[in-house]
Design goal:
The chain has 599 residues and is of the alpha+beta class. It is 24% helix and 29% strand. The protein has three domains: 313 residues, Glycosidases (TIM Barrel, Alpha-Beta Barrel), CATH 3.20.20.80; 79 residues, Golgi alpha-mannosidase II (Immunoglobulin-like, Sandwich), CATH 2.60.40; 134 residues, Jelly Rolls, CATH 2.60.120.260. The chain has an eight-stranded parallel beta sheet with strand order 7-6-5-4-1-10-9-8, with helices on both faces. A hairpin with a 2-residue loop joins β25 and β26. The structure holds alpha-D-glucopyranose. Alpha-D-glucopyranose binds next to loops.
Length: 599
């Protein structure tokens, strides 16, 4: 018995050790990726020459992804192949894409070596139906790109559509949802095309930094088998052990075959995530070049996507769709150049940075990134919205900075700040530090102490106690998100208590206001409790509000003053809310608002 326990314990210890060793090995392997933070995605292939139009007809069905044209507009193999004749080889120069990526401050490039159309961009031995052969050139864009990346110090990755292939007779095409396909036939595609092509890519082009596979579902929901994925992983591990593999191979991020998580298209982070991850996003709507494109994202929006992901420990891989002459549309170039200028000034707040373990999006003025430099910790405040009252309110860092500076075009400007416990008020000049996003650098003498539970101070001061920052919810009240009509709220339908942790910055009187909807026909008694004080009120039933004239009505969220609280000292307090809903209800609680009363 004893022996068994010892054996079990040492087995456990070994298992933990090897799990730790594996985590360290993965961290080392992915370090370049988590330091890089910003990369370029390139969607370029035969579809680029169609530009989202076929025989005078626009791309079919809802989603304007121009690289889907062969499937959506039911184009025959022969006709689709003729698009290769539109490629202008005198002008195509992959080195220009690399230079553009560099100028934009991007550290890696991932190109669509083979997209869903099944057409390899290189002269693949597997099939003559590839861009080189079809366009009658001897050029190999993949080779040229690999050479240029090496020359300019950019990492190179390959997007490879493994699951979907509209060209191979046994590849997956979504119409097979109707007809089905035999497993052995699909495996023929896998063995005849996927494996040999991956082998070509892994052996002929030097170091490959990553393979970006594209399956936006778990493989179990598709025709692909685990053994097939394992075969791919084994091949990559054998031929290029340092090459990273993304989760859209069809496996969960925790699978040993996956090195980083790729979220859905344009799906950004919502919570701090420990393992390496990225969002691939478009600069407009379509990935491949679309001649009718009119949904260009603004530079601020793109910068905020990058910063937002870094603040949650993620990367951003931003796509461009060059034309069949290799040129990148002006709108794209403009934005990449602007991002590059911003990064050349503020890049230290992105590269090698991660986030603080605060609530995602708790500050209404922007986002926070951070990094350690030797013993010090640098905290970067990315200000999207320059405060009208020129006070930036930071919540949740208990340590005291030794210095605060604003990054401007004319260098760094020292800033004054006042700190009260976990609240730091930074005094700002009239002029923002940057047109897009201003960065403030806080330098701390040692790693910072963070309080991720407290209620953050709002933009102009005051504390909103809401469903997104509650500290304890004893009755497990259901939380409902903002749905376009009603604010985010708790549904209070049974006895229980909600408690928030608030830092009161100075002694004095504070008003407490409540925003709620009483759904019942009778009044509901509520209480707000803190250190021997109790505010009480009977809330009348609430009615309906016209949200949009003639179109939508919804529950009204009324605002009422519960009263005033007196705090004799600055410090942390726990505020508890209770509602007597035994006979009625439910009560929908939007927020309790605490604000100092002007003397
Ligand atoms: C989707 C689309 C594809 C695009 C990719 C990029 O999977 O099918 O066209 O390449 O997303 O993330």
């Amino acid at each position: 018995m004893k022996l068994k326990i010892v054996f079990y314990l040492s087995w456990m210890a070994l298992a933990t050790l090897s799990a730790n060793a594996q985590a360290t090995a993965t961290a080392q392997k992915t370090k370049w990726f988590t330091d890089a933070r910003f990369g370029m995605f390139i969607h370029w292939g035969l579809y680029s020459a169609a530009e989202g139009m076929w025989k005078g007809e626009r791309l079919r069905y809802g989603n304007n992804y121009a690289e889907w044209i062969r499937y959506r507009n039911r184009i025959s193999k022969e006709e689709y192949g003729t698009l290769a004749k539109r490629f202008d080889w005198n002008r195509i120069n992959p080195e220009e894409w690399v230079l553009l990526a560099k100028k934009a401050g991007m550290k890696y490039i991932t190109i669509t070596s083979k997209h869903h159309d099944g057409v390899a961009l290189w002269n693949s031995k597997v099939s003559d139906y590839n861009l080189t052969k079809l366009s009658g050139t001897n050029r190999d864009v993949i080779r040229e790109l690999a050479v240029a990346c090496k020359k300019h110090g950019i990492k190179l990755g390959f997007y490879y559509s493994h699951w979907v292939d509209w060209d191979h007779p046994y590849g997956w095409d979504h119409n097979k949802e109707l007809t089905g396909i035999k497993d052995e036939d699909y495996d023929r595609y896998w063995q005849e095309k996927v494996i040999p092509q991956l082998r070509e890519l892994l052996t002929n082009y030097g170091d490959i930094a990553m393979f970006w596979f594209d399956m936006w579902l778990n493989y179990k929901k598709t025709v692909v088998k685990k053994e097939q994925l394992d075969q791919v992983v084994r091949l990559i591990r054998e031929l290029q052990p340092n090459c990273l593999i993304n989760s859209r191979i069809g496996l969960p991020a925790s699978d040993p075959g996956v090195d980083f998580e790729s979220k859905g298209d344009n799906e950004f982070g919502s919570a701090y995530t420990e393992h390496p991850w990225e969002t691939s996003g478009t600069i407009a709507h379509s990935w491949g070049y679309y001649g009718q494109e009119n949904e260009w994202k603004s530079t601020s929006q793109l910068l905020q996507s990058l910063i937002g992901n870094v603040s949650l420990n993620g990367d951003f891989t931003l796509n461009i769709g060059p034309r069949a002459d290799g040129s990148v549309p002006y709108e794209g170039v403009r934005r990449l150049e602007d991002m590059g200028k911003w990064l050349s000034k503020n890049g230290e707040a992105i590269y090698g940075c991660t986030g603080l373990e605060l609530r995602a999006g708790q500050h209404d003025w922007g986002r926070i990134t951070t990094k350690r430099v030797h013993k010090k910790q640098l905290v970067y405040l990315h200000v999207y919205n320059w405060p009208l009252d020129k006070v930036l309110r930071l919540s949740g860092i208990l340590s005291r900075p030794e210095k605060a500076e604003l990054i401007t075009d004319a260098g760094r400007k020292p800033l004054k700040f006042v700190q009260q416990g976990p609240l730091t008020h930074i005094h700002l000049p009239q002029q923002a530090g940057d047109r897009f996003v201003s960065v403030i650098v806080l330098r701390y003498p040692e790693p910072v102490e963070v309080d991720g539970e407290m209620v953050a101070e709002a933009g102009f001061g005051g504390f909103p106690l809401s469903s997104s920052n509650v500290w304890e919810n004893t009755a497990a009240y259901k939380r409902v998100k903002y749905d376009g009509l009603r604010p985010a709220h708790f549904i209070i339908d049974k006895e229980g208590a909600l408690t928030w942790e608030v830092y009161i910055p100075e002694a004095g009187n504070y008003a407490a206001d409540l925003s709620y909807h009483n759904h019942s026909k009778a009044p509901i008694g509520v209480q707000l409790l803190v250190t021997g004080q109790r505010l009480e009120q009977q809330l009348k039933p609430s009615g309906t509000i016209v949200a949009e004239p003639h179109s939508s009505y919804t529950e009204e969220f009324a605002d009422t003053r519960l009263g005033q609280l007196r705090f004799s000292d600055a410090g942390f307090y726990q505020l508890t809310f209770k509602a007597a809903v035994k006979e009625g209800g439910p009560l929908l609680l939007n927020r309790v608002w605490i604000q100092k009363v002007a003397q």
